[in-house]
Amino acid sequence: MTDRISTSMMYSQSVSSMTAKQSRLNQIQAQLASGQRLVTAKDDPVAAGTAVGLDRALAAITRFGENANNVQNRLGLQENALSQAGDKMARVTELAVQANNSSLSPDDRKAIASELTALRDSMVSLANSTDGTGRYLFGGSADGSAPFIKSNGSLTYNGDQTQKQVEVAPDTFVSDTLPGSEIFMRIRTGDGTVDAHADSANTGTGLLLDFSRDASTGSWNGGSYSVQFTAADTYEVRDSTNTVVGTGTYKDGEDINAAGVRMRISGAPAVGDSFQIGASTTKDVFSTIDDLVGALNSDTLTPPQKAAMINTLQSSMRDIAQASSKMIDARASGGAQLSAIDNANALLESNEVTLKTTLSSIRDLDYASALGQYELEKASLQAAQTIFQQMQSSSLFNLIR
């Protein structure tokens, strides 16, 4: 009875051993077929868990890369659009300078006005640029429809003031394209802080050639003032309550210092004519070009009409300079974001290499080692099978002999 139990146990152990060896051989065959050490999680639960974490980290890098590519494309298109807009503004400036030439005929001015109108329309097209996917570059977060719409002869901005933030690396955000209101609409007039202009009701030929803040005569306090001519050669400076705060004698082409602002006026202002000083306001670039066009298409039959046109040209040229500066600032901002994306991409690429190397060391198969192990397991299985076959062929008579 003992011999029978022992033989049964030997048979059972042999079968179990062969089954285990066959299972191990099958596992190595699956590894060789897939090229991976971890075919299933049970092959190495700890390593499999680590691999899942690495896969998630790599998926996040892929997502960040897609975000970076999308915003990089939009910022690149913004740069192209603003570069073209800058070229057009340079041409607007050239035309404004040409128009400020007293020898031009009405037809010459109308020709300049026609080109300015075409430039304005081109600027509108650039302001309504898309990113190639149907999204508008300069609409803020409301980028599903054209941000600039012509209504009742004027242009309105239908986007919002939101500049989207995009995550391009862990806890690293860059700004998407600027909303159009920050580039084309909310442009400071004058020198960006103070503005001055000739009153539109003036009847003389006084020209406001230039102005600037002049600390030597006292700091401008941000208030509104007017220089009003009481005679051909005298003027008063009045504040916003119409109180006289200064007087002076006018000489053609000489500076007038009013409340910390230096004004250079030439020509012959009429009694009652005034020149206004106040805080800079905001204006859109399209209206500035429209003002130029309107001035060039206006009648200039009389000296006062011609003076009014020149004053409008002078004021518009200052506003054009501010608009051009605004576009340069926008391009600089976009360039800074593109640089930040390049830095983020470099970091992600480095992290990706490290993660993939680590994942490969955990998951990928060492073919040379696996082939050696396969041959070893195969030989071991064959030996076990041979022994089992010998056990099966044994009999009681063979044992007695």
Summarize the SSE layout with pairings.
Blueprint: H1 2-34, H2 45-99, H3 106-127, E1 148-151, E2 154-157, E3 165-169, E4 172-175, H4 180-185, E5 187-188, E6 194-198, E7 207-213, E8 225-231, E9 234-239, E10 244-249, E11 255-258, E12 261-266, E13 274-279, E14 282-283, H5 285-296, H6 303-363, H7 367-393, H8 396-400
Antiparallel strand pairs: 1-2, 3-4, 5-14, 6-13, 7-12, 8-9, 8-13, 9-10, 11-12
Helix pairs in contact: 1-7, 2-3, 2-6, 3-5, 5-6
Overview of the structural elements:
- The protein has 401 residues and is an alpha+beta fold.
- Helix 5 (285-296) packs antiparallel against helix 6 (303-363).
- It is 55% helix and 17% strand.
- The mean pLDDT is 86.
- The protein is built from eight helices and 14 strands.
- A five-stranded antiparallel beta sheet has the order 6-13-8-9-10.
- The chain has helices at 2-34, 45-99, 106-127, 180-185, 285-296, 303-363, 367-393, 396-400, and strands at residues 148-151, 154-157, 165-169, 172-175, 187-188, 194-198, 207-213, 225-231, 234-239, 244-249, 255-258, 261-266, 274-279, 282-283.
- It is rod-shaped and about 140 Å long.
- It folds into two domains: 36-190 and 283-364, f41 fragment of flagellin, N-terminal domain; 193-279, no CATH class.
- The two termini are 20 Å apart.
Number of domains: 2
How are the strands of the biggest sheet laid out side by side? 6-13-8-9-10
Order of helices and strands: HHHEEEEHEEEEEEEEEEHHHH
Proportion of residues in helical segments: 55-70%
Helix and strand composition category: alpha+beta
Number of strands: 14
Report the portion of residues in β strands: 15-25%
CATH architecture call of the largest domain: Up-down Bundle
Count of helical stretches: 8
Give the termini distance in whole angstroms: 20 Å
Overall pLDDT, averaged?
86
The biggest sheet amounts to:
5 strands, antiparallel
Classified by CATH, the class of the largest domain is Mainly Alpha
Low-confidence stretches: none
